[in-house]
Specification:
The chain is an alpha/beta fold. It has 9 helices and 12 strands.
């Protein structure tokens, strides 16, 4: 073999492993990271698995769903760590401004369904409904309702009738939406609130404490706790209560006070792979799975009203 031929042959041998690695990398599926709302985590995990099983062309990408809270998901999106943020609240103006300044890009939100928050108590609690004003006076920083007796009821097994007031964590979309809807955008919650890590923990707390009051997504209702009706007071009109009907096909009215959208956010317009996934989530199969988890499909809509 001539010297030049030998050199070329050796060069080919040296490059062969690199070529193999590059081909392997090219064949590896793309990872699309989807993080955020704990409220949405179960359905988001089902969406990611079902999409890859049901849609053949999706196998060039792997959707990885994780929780951590709406605020953490949005922060991860702004920092460029993920491609899709799940959120049970709309992005705040300061978050959008931060995304614009940091990534020179505009977040795009896609409504993927609807949820409703419901206040919950122990099944032995005789109370049936709460008004927006009562919730404000219970949860607000300057609230003056601390005992169930302040609302005219006596709760069996609740010592001194003092409420155990529970809430979701500060980085939770449920916390942010509830605070805004009940207290107003700039108001603060009282300091003696018992914060819960997720909906399941809140259900456990309320189910085991006759004194407790909390709020959860309707997707997490169970027979271990009792949902309360919400009463809206309008000037010149009789009070109107809105209740959760767990037996009905649509469990809440479009005018229910704490009905709100669920979002998936991308940074800028999504690329074709991510767009295909979002379209599937918002389509018939994705919405059927959303409904099976207790949420409300896109087509049902809602007024997004508060108290």
């Amino acid at each position: 073999m001539r010297r030049n031929d030998t050199f070329v042959f050796l060069l080919m041998l040296l490059c062969a492993p690199l070529a193999t690695i590059n081909l392997a990398d090219a064949a590896s599926p793309r990872i699309i990271r989807n993080k955020g709302s704990d409220t949405m985590l179960e359905v988001a995990s089902m969406w990611s698995s079902a999409y890859q099983a049901m849609v053949p062309e999706s196998r060039t990408a792997v959707i990885e769903a994780s929780g951590g809270g709406s605020g953490n998901g949005i922060a991860a999106l702004i920092n460029g760590h993920i491609q899709i943020a799940n959120s049970s609240r709309a992005m705040k103006a300061r978050e959008i401004k931060l995304a614009n300044s940091r990534l020179r890009s505009q977040p795009v939100g896609f409504v993927v369904g609807w949820d409703a928050l419901t206040t919950i108590v122990h099944p032995d609690n005789p109370i049936k409904a709460l008004t927006g004003d009562a919730l404000n006076r219970i949860y607000g920083k300057k609230g003056d309702i601390e005992r169930w007796s302040d609302l005219g009821v006596t709760v069996p097994g609740c010592k001194d009738q003092r409420m155990t007031i529970t809430s979701h964590r500060l980085n939770s979309g449920s916390y942010a939406y509830f605070r805004h809807a009940v207290l107003g955008s700039k108001a603060l919650m009282r300091r003696d609130i018992h914060f819960q890590r997720n909906h399941a923990e809140m259900v456990d707390t309320v189910a085991n404490d006759p004194c407790a009051l909390g709020y959860i997504s309707i997707a997490h209702l169970s027979d271990r706790i009792k949902p309360l009706c919400l009463t809206r007071l309008n000037k010149g009109q009789p009070p109107r209560s809105y209740c959760i009907d767990q037996q009905a096909d649509q469990r809440v009215s479009v005018n229910y006070p704490l009905l709100h959208p669920l979002y998936m956010y991308t940074m800028g317009e999504p690329d074709p792979q991510i767009r295909a996934y979002l379209d599937w989530v918002r389509g018939a199969d994705g919405q059927r799975m959303l409904k099976s988890h207790g949420f409300i499909p896109i087509g049902y809509g809602g007024s997004g009203q508060t108290f």
